Predict the structure.
Amino acid sequence: MEDIIISTLQRAMVAGTPLLLATTGEVICERSGILNLGVEGVMAMGAVVAFMVTMTTGNPWLGVLAALAAGMMFSIIHAFASVTLQANQVVSGLAMTMLGLGFSGMLGKSYVGKPLSIKMEDWVIPYLSDIPWLGKILFSQGPFFYIAIFLALAAWFFLEKTRLGIQIRSTGENPKATETQGVNVFKLKYLSVITGGGFSALAGAHLSISYSKSWIEGMTAGRGWIAIALTIFALWNPARAIWAAFLFGGIFVVQYLLQPLGISPNFLAMLPYLATLLILLLISLKDPKKLNAPAMLGEPYKRGER
Amino acid sequence: MIKIKTTDRYNITTLRSFMTNILSLFAALVVIGIIFLIAGVNPFYAISEIFSGSFGSFYGIKETITKAIPLILIGAGLTLAFRAKFWNIGAEGQMLMGAVFATWTGLTFGEALPSYIIVPLIFLAGFIGGGLWGIIPAILKIKYAINEVISTLMLNYICAEILTLLIVGPWKGKTRFGFPGTDNLPDSAILGLIPGSRIHYATLILAVICAIVLGVIIYKTRFGYEARVVGENPDAGRYAGINFLKTSLILMAISGGLAGVAGVGEVAGIHHHLGYPASISSGYGFTAIIVAWLAKLNPLYTIISGIFFAGILVGGDAIQISLGLPAATVEIVNGTLLIFLIMGDYFLNHKITLQFSFKH
């Protein structure tokens, strides 16, 4: 019994890792006032690029870097459409999803179903990993787990404590006022969208080269959309995103735990999506003023309209 | 030194709007051509294959019209929702729910009833199924401030699982020899086809009527006006006493309902039984978003844009076979067209002039 609980929690951490990466990225992006609904597409791009490069070079870290670069470059499309051309961000994000899923399907066509023999070694933290229970769950995980938590904390520090981070946040709250203070609002929005894209691509890389060690079309399975919901649940705070993401990781894993009990696998597969709705329902009971949503989220900003 | 100056454009003519769309589509085609080139395919050949596959032959045209039916129905419904800035991304799920309701009705009452009763009945059932699935996100948005993009998408996944659960479990047909899927609908519930084609004409006529009626609703009725105000100027709408919940419920019942009707057409007109979600809809709910956008959110124009995108779906199938391209190619084409269409809006709404000034 103890083993089952430990291994379930361990897997919940693994399943929560891509959600944490993508949610952190979306928080940064939305804080600048830009809604990016293309997470699912960027994630798929990251997944396929990481897989292809890892398979070809034999080095997973090169795969990670390539995914990062691909995700950031791909996100420029959304930044250009929504920042420079002030296009409708909802529709632009949907187009990004279509493009990302389409390109990833085209690029990865000859890689479908090929297993990846290269394994990323777990980072077993000395001494800490000997702690009963916690050691196995938290301190003997794959590299992505630690990277995701580190990046979430770093993003929190960046947004709350650094000058640039505060400027990004005020861009999402009141771009006009921010611009009058001599800040280049367009540049910050670009920066945030591109950074967010990089995070989503990392999430995809984790899925293909660490989590499932294979590539199939549509393997992101709505995780990008769940990350967008988690951004709201985390109240646009990367530190809160940590536990939100791992809670959802648990929901992804619990289906495998319940399957032997004879519950329909189709019903269990619904759980993450049902839970997403439930969690948004819970958060709506909160006072909307305390939700912390960036005031100008999704609103196109016209420069020079002072 | 060259300066780019942009000014807002206020009087936008239909002609300018139309030309902008045409230019956006053309620009998108150029980019799609470049993508084909990189993929190692002759772009001129590929693009001409898409259009000759869909519009170049009698068979192609028949297939294009068949696929245009769900796109027009869903696209027309989406124009209403999008006008109210209700971002319904859940047409895929609403369509499947319509198919589920229609299948149940057809299997339960079909044997005993003549065609002229059961066919309207399954269409009604599909409309109700899609409409009910559509009003859930409307309630969630207005009552609980839940973002409809996320809720409609989550409901897509949930509906697909419900449908699969039904066809592998309680609804699995005896005639399927253990494979997932319901039994075929009784003959009386099956829609007639135009001979020699797969065009289920009842749904086609319904789609055209719905597009026209929706046009009247949006431009000529008080409800249509209210829906537009909810989208364009919610503060004014609140001030004028518009009931947001009522308006959203009605428009999502219509938008979802029409998607449900599209689902009925696919089940009763083409497959004759309920199978896996991917077999009932090849992403019509998502393609219809671009259909609505290309129609500039005017339901009447979805008849044309629906046929255009049906052509791309059919042509996309054709080049998959003839050029060995993956199924994802259609998604790239769709995504590129959509992003260029929304980028084109900038040039529609802004006047861009180059100013030359010489500094000493």
User: Anything to note?
Assistant: The longest strand of chain A covers residues 123-124.
